[in-house]
Amino acid sequence: MLHLATLLVAALLVAGGCSAPPLGSTPANHEKAARLPGADVYGRACASCHGQRGEGLSQAPALMGSGALPVYKRDPATTSSPAFQDIAERQRQQSLPPGADTRGAFKTAQDLFKYVSREMPLPKSKAGSLSEGEYWAVVNFILVGHGSTVPPGGVTVQNAGSVEIKPAQ
Residue 46 class from Cβ within 10 Å (0-12 exposed, 13-18 middle, 19+ buried)? Predict the structure, then answer.
C-alpha cells in the first residue's frame, strides 16, 4: 500500500512539473502592466477578445507572452485548435493577390500602433474609434505585459520606431 501511495505522489509531481506554462502575460509582467493607464482601456476595448492577460480567446490571437506578437502572422494551418481558426479572415486573405502583406510585420512599437489604431477594436465598424492617446496607452500596456522593455515615460510617437518588440522569454 505504501508503495502505491509513493508511486501516486511521484506521478502527481511529474505531471505538475510537466504542465504547460499559462498563456498570456506572466504574473510579474501583468502586475507591472496593470498599473499603467492603458490597463483600463485594454480592459474595456480589448480584453473581451484577447483575454485579461492577453492570452487570446476564441478567434483572437494572444498579445502577450510566449508565441504572442510574432513578427509575421500566425499560420492557422499550423494548428488544429479552433481558437486560432478564423474562416472569414482566411477567406479575406485568399482574395488578396499572392504574396500581399496582410498585416505587416510587428518589429517595432510603431508597427504595432499602426496596426492596432487602424484595425482595432473589432467589429470593423469600431476600428479606429479610440483616441490616439488611448491607442498609445494600449500599446504600452501590451508591450509591458508582453515583457518588452519600454523607455522611461513609455512608448510615444517620438520613440515608437526605435522600440523593438522582442519575443517573450
Answer: buried
Residue 87 lies in a domain: yes
Q: Is 2 inside a domain boundary?
A: no
Q: How many domains does the chain have?
A: 1
The runs of H, that is alpha helices, within the chain are: 2-17, 27-34, 38-45, 47-50, 87-94, 109-119, 132-146
- pLDDT tens digit string along 92-135? 566 656 655 556 778 999 999 999 999 899 888 999 999 999 99
Report pLDDT for 22: 59
Cα 43 to the chain's mean position, in Å?
13
* CATH code, domain carrying 79: 1.10.760.10
**Does residue 114 sit within a domain?**
yes
In the chain, which stretches have pLDDT less than 70? Answer: 1-22, 72-103, 168-169
Domain of 53?
24-162
